[in-house]
Amino acid sequence: MLKKILKLAGIGFLVGVLVGNLIASLSGWPDRLLSSLLVARAGGAAAALLWQTLFSGLLGAVSMAGAALYDVERWSLLRIALTHYVLIEAVYIPIALFLDWAASLPEILIMMALQAACYLLIFLIMYARYHREVRQLNDMNRQKNKE
Fold it and tell me: What's the number of domains the chain is made of?
């Protein structure tokens, strides 16, 4: 399990770096790739870009490694989804504040609400999928018992 978590974290780090810098580039190119607060906090643009890259990677690593929670069979899907959501938020909020992705409590709350909506949608899709699979297995079992 640890090997799987480390593999997922490594992939997540790379994806986080890519996505984090892509979003930063698209949201502020060419004028605001980095926030002026982050540049001042880091002591220069190069250091700010390094911090943004590392923390984007960290967020990606935690997000992807947290997906291993879905392999815990004794947990309910709801418990897994809530645990993963809390894990992501516990990492996202300090990173968002440090990197100046969100500057105020209302912005943080809006992002949390958007992320919660995404989690709810994913939960409903997975619940429907698992429910359908269980129904199919039960139908196959009933059919086998009839024969």
Answer: 1
